[in-house]
Structure formats: structure tokens, C-alpha cells
From TrEMBL, chains A, B:
<feature type="coiled-coil region">
    <location>
        <begin position="203"/>
        <end position="233"/>
    </location>
</feature>
<dbReference type="Pfam" id="PF02525">
    <property type="entry name" value="Flavodoxin_2"/>
</dbReference>
<dbReference type="GO" id="GO:0010181">
    <property type="term" value="F:FMN binding"/>
</dbReference>
<dbReference type="GO" id="GO:0003955">
    <property type="term" value="F:NAD(P)H dehydrogenase (quinone) activity"/>
</dbReference>
<feature type="domain" description="Flavodoxin-like fold">
    <location>
        <begin position="11"/>
        <end position="157"/>
    </location>
</feature>
<protein>
    <recommendedName>
        <fullName>Flavodoxin-like fold domain-containing protein</fullName>
    </recommendedName>
</protein>
<dbReference type="InterPro" id="IPR046980">
    <property type="entry name" value="KefG/KefF"/>
</dbReference>
<keyword id="KW-0175">Coiled coil</keyword>
<dbReference type="InterPro" id="IPR029039">
    <property type="entry name" value="Flavoprotein-like_sf"/>
</dbReference>
<dbReference type="GO" id="GO:0009055">
    <property type="term" value="F:electron transfer activity"/>
</dbReference>
<keyword id="KW-0560">Oxidoreductase</keyword>
<dbReference type="InterPro" id="IPR003680">
    <property type="entry name" value="Flavodoxin_fold"/>
</dbReference>
Length: 235, 235
């Protein structure tokens, strides 16, 4: 297999949580459970008090993808995240150590996301509201990921929550591009990883699904090769 | 005189300063000196520690214009201001007590303001970067003032600094509209207020200038009346 991401043991993603009441937040607990089975993800809570700057900087160096996860308070993150940014990302560090890493935001909203648009009640889009984070990423030569926003979690149906779980897991660990092959690869490696924990019959079913996906992909690749050959024969 | 603002003793503007080292900042010291003679302005420093929420809220209620004054740190205010906003502006307060007040930002920049535009090094405009404050103002039904930005203060000439002083004083106390009459009124009332502190000859000079401005204005008003009359005579 060409794409191993998700099945090896290398830590990849650091989720920095800035939330004053993680234990009382249904959504944060749901997200934590969703990420628990992802071996390449580490969770890092920000707690009030002094940060050990060197320790925080060393932690950041180890990961390819940094995620800020927080509820939107007054059109930004809770102040604790700004404190962390102000103190940890100093000039030298920003110039040298974050380059080519990815920066993502997982933002929960108390109102419907549809309200964030010109002429709607909130008037500005989430992309506009979170420009300061995009500008930070630019300055550090990081790649800014699409914002992952979650609104009105408590009104979600079970199916919506399952979809959220998959999309969130992908946001944390999937290769950052949107083509179909990447999505397929993610499902295959993820499937292989979780099938071990299943009972025998379920495991067999999952392995069958995975082998169908893999066979289909081989067929698609064969077809692509054929098309390329046919094209090269054209006058 | 129809426009008394600036000569009476009513507090009008609250400047909330979020700067970790005000005493060591040449610019902040310059701004403080510039505002010292303005009787309608009160300065409020944010210091780390617990805020007395009720006290802060009561203070806000007293002023028509609230100014956040800070150096831009990572495309926003230093975290202490976000802490203050998160804690002081609670839901009920935001819905009831800030309506129709004005919100302004006095932001100092470490780089040339010309860098803040599409295709320039910073890529985003200051208006874009400070959208979260504009969104906050909108939500509280406040009037968001144009951003007052100061870049590269230490490279300014004496004349540039004098201009900055006037513009800053106007930002704090001038009626929020840009027509010429407002500017003129501001100069007249400000001139009358400071002339008391001058020695006799300077005071006379200043009073002469003021009376010239006032006479000119009367002449302009007469001319306007004449034009209106002439128009009403038209067929």
C-alpha cells in the first residue's frame, strides 16, 4: 500500500483545547471520545496559570498538524488560547519551527452556522471572523486548513452525530486534500485499524468491505492505464 | 454656540488600555500625554488578575464612547483585553447596556500599515483583521468607529507627531462624523479650552484665530441662506 497514514504509530496531530468547562460540555466529551481511538492524535488542554514556554514549544515541534479546538466566544477563541499564542509563539519560534505544518480550527457555535453571511444576523462569514488565525498561519508559513465548525450539537440526530464523528476524525488525521482517493485511503486504513477491536463476524464484514474498495481501486487504476495507452496511440 | 462638546465637564470617553508595558512604551506615553488635557476622557488600564465584573460594567455604562487601545499582538489585542471582554460583557449586559454607544480601536503596529492589503506582505487589511471587534460592536448594537492605527511611531518626525496628537485627540472626543463643520467646531471648542492655560500674548493670538473661524462660519451660513432664497425664487 502506498499510503500508510493512520495505521502507523507516529504521532501526527496535536489538538489544543481551549474550553473553560470541558467536563461539562457534551460536545467536547463527544469529540474526545471520537478522537480516543486515533493513535496519531494527542490532546492538550490549556489550563489557567503560567505556561512553560519551552515545554510548549517542544511539544509543537513534534507534530505536523496543530488544531485549536474551542467554543467561539465573542467572535474569537476564549482568552486562554490568546494567552498561549502570545506567550508560546515568539518571534524566533514563529520564523523557524512552524513552517509547513498545518493549522486547523475546530470551532463550536452557539447559533446556527447559516447566520454567518452578509445580510444574515451575524453579517460576517466564519472565514472573515477567523482571519486573525489565518494571518497567524500565513506569518508562520503554515498551511491553514478549512475551518471545521460545529453548530447546534445538542439538536443533532444520531445519524448527524455519526457523520460528525467521521468528519471530525478525518479532519484530525486525513491527508489534507479533498480528492476521492485520499478519502478512500483514509477509510481503508482506518477500517483496518478498528477491525482488530471487533468481534469475529463484524470483523469479517469490515474486511470484505475493505477488500471490495481495494479491488475497485485496482480496477480503476487498470482502466486509467488503459486510457493512457489508448491516448498515446492517438495521432 | 450650538455645539458645546469638549468644553463642558461631562465624562464622555473611556480609553481601555491593554498593554503589558505601558510605562516602557514611548507611544503609549505620548498618547497618555496627548489625552491628559481632555477633561471628558478617562483612562482605564487593564492589569492581570481578577476583574470586578460589576464595577467594570458600571464604569462602561457612564460613557458614550469606549476605546480599546492596544498594540497588535498576533493580529488581535493582547490576551488581557480578550479576558476582560469574555468576563465583563456577558449576555444580558451586551443586550441592554451598550446600545448606541460607540466602539473605537486605537491600534499600534510594529510594521508599516501599507503592508496590510491584498498582495502585500500581511495580505489582509486592518478592517479584515479586526472583524471580531466589529462583530462584537454589531452584536451589542454599538456604532463601530473607523480604526485608528499608528505604525512606526519611533520613525515619526516632530510634525508627524503633532498631527498624530491632534488626530488622536479628535478620535477620542470629536463628534463621530467627518463633515467640515464638525472638525471646525472641534477646533473652536478645543481652542477655547486650552487658551486659558496659555500666557497672555499666545492667548490673544489663539482667540483671534478662533474669532476668525467663527466669523467665517457666520459668513458661510449667511451665504447658504442667500443661496436658499435665490433657489426658492427660481421658476
Amino acid at each position: 500500500m502506498m499510503y500508510q497514514n493512520g495505521v502507523n504509530n507516529v504521532k501526527k496531530t496535536l489538538v489544543i483545547i481551549a474550553h473553560p468547562e470541558v467536563a461539562d460540555s457534551q460536545l467536547q466529551q463527544f469529540l474526545l471520545e471520537s478522537s480516543q481511538s486515533l493513535e496519531e492524535v494527542e490532546i492538550h488542554y490549556l489550563i489557567e496559570g503560567q505556561f512553560d514556554i519551552k515545554e510548549e514549544q517542544n511539544k509543537l515541534k513534534k507534530f505536523d498538524r496543530i488544531i485549536f479546538q474551542f467554543p467561539m466566544y465573542w467572535y474569537s477563541a476564549p482568552f486562554i488560547l490568546k494567552k498561549w499564542i502570545d506567550e508560546v509563539i515568539d518571534y524566533t519560534f514563529s520564523k523557524t519551527e512552524l513552517r509547513h505544518k498545518e493549522l486547523g480550527l475546530v470551532v463550536s457555535l452557539g447559533v446556527d452556522e447559516a447566520n454567518f453571511a452578509s445580510g444574515k444576523p451575524e453579517n460576517f462569514t466564519l472565514s472573515e471572523i477567523f482571519r486573525p488565525f489565518e494571518a497567524l498561519a500565513n506569518k508562520c508559513q503554515m498551511i491553514f486548513l478549512p475551518i471545521f465548525s460545529i453548530s447546534l450539537f445538542s439538536y443533532m440526530t444520531e445519524i448527524e452525530k455519526k457523520r460528525l464523528l467521521i468528519e471530525y476524525q478525518q479532519y484530525l488525521t486525513k491527508k489534507n486534500n479533498v480528492n476521492f482517493e485520499t478519502k478512500e485511503n483514509w477509510f481503508v486504513s482506518r477500517g483496518k485499524s478498528i477491525s482488530k477491536t471487533y468481534e469475529d463476524t463484524k470483523q469479517e464484514n469490515l474486511e470484505q468491505i475493505i477488500s471490495i474498495i481495494e479491488n475497485n481501486r485496482e480496477e480503476i487504476e487498470d482502466l486509467r492505464l488503459l486510457i493512457d495507452e489508448m491516448r498515446s496511440d492517438e495521432p
